[in-house]
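Deliverable D4.2, example record:
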Amino acid sequence: MAEENLSAVLYAKGDLRIENRPIPEPGPNEVLLQMHSVGICGSDVHYWQHGQIGDFVLKKPMVLGHEAAGRVVKVGSAVSHLKPGDRVAIEPGVPRDMDEFFKRGQYNLSPTIFFCATPPDHGNLCRYYTHNANFCYKLPDNVTFEEGALIEPLSVGIHACRRAGVTLGSTVLICGADLFAERLGVAKELGADFQLTVKKDDGAQQLAKKVEEILGAQPQITIECTGVESCIQTALYATCSGGVVMLVGLGAAMTTVPLVNAAVREVDIRGVFRYCNTWPMAIAMLSSGKVNVKPLVTHRFPLEQAVQAFETTHQGLGIKVMLKCDKNDQNP
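Output generated by the structure prediction step:
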């Protein structure tokens, strides 16, 4: 094992450093992982740019990164389902307590949950990292490390679709990258039937009409991924009566929306917080070949160039920027 544990550590707003840290020892229920691929999330960039997200404020240096996959190099004394050499994807949220949320299968809502790269919890953008073994999932041979890292954002989609009630035959509007034609192009390549480029002066009701014209009917479900007030308004106007608006994107704490319009049409407004119990489904989806996330990775950087990778993400130059943490294996 190498002596170094290079880590991407955020010290304060705008102060991201690459430094060497001790290689940790796994506890009885943990595994030590040699990290391979870690994706940069918008939340990582937000912490870097602002030093906080809502009530989560950076108060001491924190290792970033939570979209991750790696290889087991050591197991704790109580771990029996994993062994050195296993390739795994990491679920970053681990409940600390067997509270009421845990008992009813909503551990993601536990107020005491550990979550990678959310203050004060360290993330896994480093060479070596320890994690609860029960939240490390073996990857099939036909699923790459990068695909394993992308299970984290894929899980957000799975959890949102579950809560929205998406099934075969559902008509779904996704509000997301609609200001950027190149991102809409990627959405088309990955299976979107229709795309609508939004102009900044388009009104919410006007856009809702355009959506109905394109689809031939109002969507049954709208998944709103931006958190932008105007997009939430469009989502509510666009969704059919009796439908569901799923709020995935996080925006301002107070947002003005046409609530009465939604209420009298019995449009349900639902939210999500991360995900729970999604990794097995995501792995099955990737292994089957029915879901292809590989085109999402547009840039790759070695861990040593983490600052450049964050700048690339912040500038919007790619879809998903991936950091390669194993200096001896920079492959996908």
